Amino acid sequence: MSEIARTKTHPVMVGSVQVGGGAPVSVQSMCTTKTDDPDATLLQIKGLAEAGCEIIRVAIPDAKALDGFEEICKYSPLPVVADIHFDYKLALEAAKRGAAALRINPGNIGSMERVDAVIEAAKEAHIPIRIGVNAGSLAKEFDTRQDMTLVEKLVASSKSFVEHFSSRGFDDIVLSAKAHDVPTTLAVYRALSKELPQIPLHVGVTEAGALRQGTVKNAAAVGILLESGIGDTMRLSLTADPVEEVHVAWELLAALGMRRIKPELVSCPTCGRCGVDMIPIAEEVTKRLDGVRAPISVAVMGCVVNGPGEARGVDLGVACGKGQAVLFENGNPIRKVPEDKIVDELFAEIENRFGKK
Fold this sequence. Notes:
Order of helices and strands: HEEEHEHEHEHEHHEHEHEHEHEHEEEH
Number of helices: 13
Strand content: 15-25%
Structural class: alpha/beta
Strand order of the largest sheet: 8-7-6-5-4-3-10-9
Shape: elongated
Distance between the termini: 32 Å
Helix content: 40-55%
Largest sheet: 8 strands, parallel
Oligomer: single chain
């Protein structure tokens, strides 16, 4: 796996989290609560932090949200990014009230003079800005051009905004240029990684859909990009509980061998030689693994004959047979356990070796 593109980017600090400069790809999400309800928002942030979220973004739709935003920044366990659209004055206030970073769409924030005011506010607060570009926030000079594809418009807009920020002496930026489909996402980020190699990239598929479709689209696009060394931080947008975004992000990082903080389940799809009802066993193991915070691998295999060999590389596992299972470690049998004790015996071994949450 190539890390060349990622390590070329310059480092940007979002609170205590480094984005770019070769730092591990960080996981972000966005609150679905109302920002003017700080208690509800902080409760959601706590749950997201427990799931592994490292940077959180909250919307500031109007001035009524600013007091709540200030309280959220004060008590949040994660660095808080202020998400601003249209009203640049909200960005100026957010910078004063504790934002760890600002996210703006220069194409919808108004004139470039207003963008410059936001830049100056970020300079004064010593915080970075994420330039967020999408089809609805293109630079005006490219938006209506009929001779350009959407990919070309997104890339040209991104470059023009980055150049403008640089001309103002501000390079503490992260860039995103998102689309809702996989091919456009790939084309845009591949181009940006070549044409702006120094800029940390925030990757993801926007408006990807509900849990199943959104997971597939994000995994396809972001997985390909990360494997190519493109991307410094990510939010995998889903129309679902934002905790699911975090779970999917970590599953993706683990699947690519990049980062793993939670257990991995290795389970066979079952077949006609299976002697137990595998699906509920695998589901129960999955549920109980949520309580383990160790980067271990655990197998649930349906065949006593082949199971340990096929899952030889895992830390612990069970290979099920008719009415019983063999508990094994690194492919070596430990003991036999009855069918009704399979999950309990497996987790007794996990807790003995790795402890509880």
